[in-house]
From TrEMBL:
Domain HTH araC/xylS-type: 11-108
Family matches, as Gene3D superfamilies: Homeodomain-like, Methylated DNA-protein cysteine methyltransferase domain, Winged helix-like DNA-binding domain superfamily/Winged helix DNA-binding domain
Protein name: methylated-DNA--[protein]-cysteine S-methyltransferase
UniProt-listed Enzyme Commission number(s): 2.1.1.63
One Pfam family cited in the UniProt record for this chain: HTH_18
Family: Belongs to the MGMT family.
The entry's keywords: DNA damage, DNA repair, Methyltransferase, Transcription, Transcription regulation, Transferase
Amino acid sequence: MPASTHYQRVAWAIRYLQQHHQEQPSLSELAAAVHLSPAHFQRIFTAWAGVSPKKFLQYLTLEHARSLLAENATVEEAASASGLSGTGRLHDLFITLDGMTPGEFRRGGATLQIRTAIHETHFGRVRIASTARGICSLSFVDYDNESASLERLERRFPNAALTRGTDAHQQAALRCFGGTGRGLGPVQLHLQGSPFQLKVWESLLRIPSGRLATYAQIAGELGRPGAARAVGTAIGSNPVAVLIPCHRVIRSSGALGGYRWGLPRKAALIGWESAQRASPEA
């Protein structure tokens, strides 16, 4: 069974857990919620997450989120701990961001050739779109809205030449799903956004996997401590899911906050990355 199919079961279980967190459902109750036996559920969950459901659920608690925030793992500290010369080098080792020119922005991509395809990933199906210079869109696609995802892409680039197909940029992006980021080839992003949005997205690239930041911390890093709301808006408009890790930004209270692709998926991403960080083999 593919990992994307496992993910659907995991997402259903996480959604059930979020709806019934006060009752602290047991393994049997979670398994019943996704219409599986406890043994079968445990098996596919562990195959997907690398840890047992019981262990994984610890990474979804408010206490865990607060503990990550309490580490005060700022971008500068993370870079120093990695032995890197500067914060900008942390994720630029394999993900780089290139903004579209003002002309490309204004003309709705009139000069762009964009390829797009649907792919299966560790966290569900995605539509990836790419130009000759890199990934310009990556969105999660539920099984009933493939056409809607294409329409959103067409609205974002109304004058671009869209064709169906994949390329090396898309394949490089896919290698980041379900991986730790180690040993991966470079991934190029070619994004349409305002100068402020690009700065916020670049800031997100510097949050390491398995870590979390708050909207206020991102605003402070950008030298605009009172702009947490504007930061949140820019994060919400992130056109490249997972690669620009907006799922790693939560509220100062430890609550998840919002997520364009649904809170169960945000919780799954955070939990999976925490599990990988905790594993000595990750």
